[in-house]
Amino acid sequence: MLWLLALSSPRRACLAHPTQLLRLRGGQSPGELSDVWKKRLQAAVEAQQRDQLGEAAELYRMAMELHPPLQGAWPVLTNYGLSLQPSDPAKAADAFRKAVELAPDDKAKADSHFNLANALTDASQPDEADAAYGACLALVPDDGGAHYNRGALRLTRGDAKGALPCMEAAVRLSPQDAKAHLGVADCNMRLGRPEEAEASYAVSRKLRPEHALTWASSGNCAEERGEYEAAETHWKRSLQLAPDDGVYCNLGSMLRRLNRMRESRDAYAAALALNPRSVDAHIGMGKAYTAPAGGAGSEAQRRHYAAFLARTYGEALKLSPEHVGANLAVAEGLHMWGEHGPCPELGGRSAIDFYRAVLQLAPDNTNAATHAAYDGAVPEGGPAPQAGTFGEADAPPGESVAALIAPLPPPGASEAEVAAAAEEEAEEAAFP
Fold this sequence. Notes:
The chain has helices at residues 18-25, 35-49, 53-66, 74-84, 89-102, 106-122, 126-139, 144-156, 160-173, 178-190, 194-207, 212-224, 228-241, 245-257, 261-274, 279-287, 299-311, 313-319, 324-336, 351-361, 366-375, 415-430. The protein is an all-alpha fold. Helix 17 (299-311) packs across helix 22. Mean pLDDT is 81; it is low at 1-11, 13-33, 377-419 and 421-432.
């Protein structure tokens, strides 16, 4: 299952006209200042207001270089840090540290700690970021944004237990904040409390009905609770709002487990249309294979299946050659269908080659070890898995994966009808 966290990191800006900035320093008048740095500072503020942050950061830097007293102005350092943060969060954090020291009052100091925490989060310094959020809250305990961001930081680090009280505080302080309710729900899901999570997801959906990730997460929760119809509804609503290959994979996985194979393949195909490099979608398509009746007795059917393996698991292994599950699935598929020798559709590799690749990646895999031992001892330091060695499947150029998949029998078909359909398909494959 792919968990989708819809968490954001709001910023607290301090935009001001240059004259206002100067008055914070006291005593100086714009008329006494150099026109050059004054124009740079004015241009920086205007660029920041247009959200042209790279340009604004450079203009603030030039203004402070031309007029060093600006380096001691809390608003200028705050604006400079906010403009610089997207491109260089570590350097922005340095500006915010200075802003903390220069803040004129506790509210300004709390804002500086908040901005410092955001920059440190972006700079991948989570311990320091958590401490900075704590410093902000020590000054302003009812800062809902700081509670939320601290919870988001902890949740992304895997600390759902520590994140939950932060998210709950954010909800208490801002009960109409949809993302805070979503944060509480995500925490409860991570803590294995899907019932509590659904209560918060429901509030978030009501407050923000057009938010795709809320519906996607709600679908995950519904599936966890065994409410498959609700899960399907939630995921499809999410996909209407914002198509996403991960959500399609979640939907395809559930439909496969419900034995709705054709719909499952459609979902995985949609995921691949959005992201042809989705390893999960290629593997999911492989799992959604519907085997024709008759099994390994037909050479045509074995070739059909080997071609399908190459188009699904084989593609996954091209993208991720060290994927244990994909290697094992190919090995198991070839073994199950009696394909014990080199398989031309898979670059001449055999089932035992894939089992040995699994052992190289996961030495404790008893399934692979048993098959490798049965076929012969694995040489010490045996062959490593190979990438990009799979041949093209035996299918006309441009044929889709769906064309290689045996169709499902019609609903209500008898065993005899299923067997007859499979035999007819096998004859067509053998004698085109």
